[in-house]
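Q: Hi! First time doing this. I have a protein sequence and I read that you can turn it into a structure. Is that right? Here it is:
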Amino acid sequence: MHKQNFKIILSFLLILISNFIFAQKKFTVVLDAGHGGSDHGANRNYADIGRVAEKDVTLAVTLKVGAMLEKNKDFKVIYTRKIDEYPSLSDRTNLANRSKADLFVSIHCNSSVRPTAYGTETYVQGPNQNDENLEVAKRENDVIFLDEKDKQTFGSYDANSPESLIALKLQQSKYLESSLLLGGLIEDNFVNKDKRFSRGVFQKNLHVLRMNAMPSVLIETGFINHPEESHYLASEKGQQEISESIYQAIVDYKKAIDRKSGGGAVAVRKPEPEKPVEVALKNDFRILLLSVPTKYNDGDPALKGLNYILPIKENGQYKYYYGVTNLASVKDINLKTAKDAGFKNAYAVGFMPNQKLNSGYYTIEVYVGEKLNGNSFIMQTLKDVERNKENGVFYYTYGKEYSLEDIIKLQKDLEAKGIKNTVIQKVYK
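A: Yes, that's right. Below is the predicted 3D structure, encoded as structure tokens:
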């Protein structure tokens, strides 16, 4: 009798344990339908189908992706919205962080002033977001998950210890790597399964990516202002295909992550040999895209959709640099992104942080063109602007600094005053 009771109790405990392990293996995905409520996002009216609004397309696609994931026993789905309402950007990211999600997927539609623009894009964390992501991680360390090896290496979390800071930086690098993996899977599905045009995977400084303590992507499913593509986005067929591509990418992403980790947190695996922690390089690295005598403003097609471009004028040539990092792994990712965007001859250039110029200085070219009158915004806003004339063209410059960091800070101060599309100029004396 006692043996029989023991067997019943043991069986019951095994069921409880197996259920616990099963629950632990749930992979939590936060699905974010962009915009909503009074925020319609990109929208356009068409004579045959009426108004196509981004908020409606994103919600329809999000619910379809969520329905597919919910049928898969490996996934838990959390929605930032399931109806036509507008959660703030902070609400969306806070929900993801509080939920301790494994993945954040934000779904949007694109728009452009050019009616010919079309195709899909996926964005991941911007190359210069590491510092801000790190601050989020430090403030909300309860949602930062180090893997078992990292825990053994770095021990308990202490926001003020150098060891924990290194651990968090390592985790930020892992988020970026994982986000790029998912972004590539999504865009590959759009191309290979749906036969659509992919504009690529890009890094961009977006709030819903910047403030998340987990791998995150923002998907631009197509252009609302493109007549053919907007009809596809508004159709049941288009929304279903897009949803299936995103769903399959998430499933394949989890499989890849499980393979890499040996099957998840509950799997028993042999200890891996210790890998050295990535050490920050002495120099900051930017990717030189091109050097031309032409000045391009932000968003110019010549920059091929890349953001976080730093133009520096030297000897009459405008050199366009992409991204900045002091980690070799991120430098390689930035270089690959530049080459994938079409800059096949791009290469990394090292900059020593806070290095003062031995000769010469940096200034800011605030305007190029015809002569400005005294009532112009620039002349009214800035004092001590220098003016030079070359070949009938007037060049206006402002400020004098001796390190790149100082002149970038001055440039940001000018942007805050409303003076944009300026260029840093290196002057040799």
